[in-house]
């Protein structure tokens, strides 16, 4: 009986990153001054710099719709909770997150 030689190959399965898009719809009247938004993000030392920037951008933007994109576990929900708390502190009712 003969033998078959198979070249040694290591197959690595590449994982596709999981990406989640989150949309925030804020009323046009809700917008903090940039310095106020920075102050909000500075109060949350558990946020990394990218998360702080998202908080600052969302809270100080006049745009009604914002998209937050990130890999699973990147901290989107944590970031949104800070945004939610800031909006509620201004008297807004937040639905959905």
Largest sheet: 2 strands, antiparallel
Fraction in beta strands: 5-15%
Report strand order across the widest sheet: 1-2
* Distance linking N and C termini: 66 Å
Work out the helicity level: 25-40%
Order of helices and strands: EHHEH
Q: Based on helices, strands and strand pairing, what is the structural class?
A: alpha+beta
Average pLDDT across residues? 79
Unreliable stretches: none
In terms of quaternary structure, the protein is single chain
Number of helices: 3
Round the Cα radius of gyration to an integer and report it: 21 Å
User: How many beta-strand segments?
Assistant: 2
What shape does the CA trace take? globular
Plain-language structure description:
This protein is α+β, with helices and mostly antiparallel strands and 97 residues long. The chain is built from three helices and two strands, in the order E-H-H-E-H. The protein has helices spanning 34-42, 49-60, 76-89; strands at 19-25, 65-71. A two-stranded antiparallel ribbon has the order 1-2. Helix 1 (34-42) runs antiparallel to helix 2 (49-60) and helix 2 runs parallel beside helix 3. The longest helix has 14 residues, at 76-89. It is globular and about 30 Å long. The chain starts with 18 loop residues before the first strand and ends in an 8-residue tail after the last helix.
Summarize the topology:
Blueprint: E1 19-25, H1 34-42, H2 49-60, E2 65-71, H3 76-89
Antiparallel strand pairs: 1-2
Helix pairs in contact: 1-2, 2-3
């Amino acid at each position: 009986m003969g033998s078959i030689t198979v070249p040694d190959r290591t197959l690595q399965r590449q994982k596709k990153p999981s990406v989640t898009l989150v949309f925030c719809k804020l009323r046009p009247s809700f917008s903090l001054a940039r310095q106020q938004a920075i102050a909000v993000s500075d109060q949350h030392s558990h946020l990394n710099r990218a998360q702080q920037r998202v908080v600052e951008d969302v809270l100080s933007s006049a745009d009604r719709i914002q998209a937050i994109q990130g890999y699973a576990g990147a901290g989107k929900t944590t970031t949104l909770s800070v945004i939610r708390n800031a909006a509620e502190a201004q008297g807004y009712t937040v639905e959905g997150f």
